[in-house]
Amino acid sequence: MTSTNSLPARSRVVAQALADAGVEGEVIELPDSARTAAEAAAALGCQVGQIANSLVFWADGAPLLVMTSGRHRVDTTALARRLGKATLERATPDQVRLATGQAIGGVAPVGHPTPLETVVDETLAEYTRVWTAGGTPHTVFPTTFEELVRLTGASVHPVTS
Fold this sequence. Notes:
alpha/beta; 8-stranded mixed beta sheet; single chain; 5 helices
């Protein structure tokens, strides 16, 4: 178990946000990268679908965080239609860092400079436990679908067509 003080600075911000929200799951640091869902699932010994990928999009000029199951690719056209957005495009690395304070591959659902509009993939509800990034490509934390939705104030949608 990693002590909070030994976590990277960005992960300490995430750990504090989790503690403030009453989340029991702790941010842990993995010895290997968990930048992709496949890497994270291998490191954690879980199914790739249990990994809640944090993807940042730019929707109608504002950031949108999409927490999707690692087994899915986001259908941006279908999701934009569901959300009533005119545009939905992948954010650039600079936009991701500006919106979240974190780098691609390590974006947590919390710990951002300001709260982000968030969508959670409905299929994450199929799992008792899901894992999400903890602020860096080497940190993660466990949660549940219900807790993830509550924590982020997300709307729940299918993210595929």
